[in-house]
Amino acid sequence: MGLPGNQLASRRIVCLTPSSDTSDYNRGFAMIIDILFGTESGNAELVAEDLAEALGNEHEVRVIDLADADVDGFRQDSLYLIICSTHGEGDLPQSAEPFAAAVRENSPDLAGVRYAMFGLGDSTYPNYGRGGELIDELLQAHGATRVGTFGRHDAAGRAEPGDLTASWASDVLLGARLPVPTA
Ligand SMILES: Cc1cc2nc3c(=O)[nH]c(=O)nc-3n(C[C@H](O)[C@H](O)[C@H](O)COP(=O)(O)O)c2cc1C
């Protein structure tokens, strides 16, 4: 995603650069990472912000609510880390609904766009983690490529979501740095 006006209003983590010259957007950073979150009661947002703080020293990181995301602005030079919960009966959380509707309506060509997926859910519900899966299916249907494992946090379990997302993200980033094999 570029920097359209509607995203300037969203939370943005600006990292310290090793160089004072910021004209080169990617200078001094290993990767450009957009962390997108879809939430209803705030957990995914907290996780996204913690992740941004952890990754911010090494990478250019932005945190964007899916509700504010521009579906026509996905960039091939960014890695998208998507954190999305599930609500209702296996439905998307509120903040992800307008995003999903806009993708269906605008049908953006997401070929070349790379993303990783982490779903928040609760296994005591029948449709465990379905919200993240819905976003995953939608992005793949429009040509985007998922990298790394599909991470999950189960609110019925004992693990802290932040611990799981931290190890998930480091695995994803490790994989995303590897050269893509050519046929
Ligand atoms: C009313 C309600 C419905 C939920 N429905 C589901 C569900 O169908 N499947 C699931 O895996 N989790 C479900 N959950 C669990 C949430 O996904 C989980 O608590 C998550 O951490 C919430 O993240 P959020 O605060 O970012 O929305 C539900 C939670 C609530 C409160």
From TrEMBL:
Which is a Pfam family this sequence falls into?
A: Flavodoxin_1
| Gene3D superfamilies to which the protein is assigned, alphabetical | 3.40.50.360
- Keywords, comma-separated and alphabetical: Flavoprotein
One Gene Ontology cellular component term attached to this UniProt record is: cytosol
* Highest taxon of the lineage: Bacteria
Is Flavoprotein among this UniProt entry's keywords? yes
- List the molecular function annotations (GO) for this entry: flavin adenine dinucleotide binding; FMN binding; sulfite reductase (NADPH) activity
Boundaries of every Flavodoxin-like domain copy? 33-173
- This protein is called what? Nitric oxide synthase
Species of provenance: Arthrobacter terricola
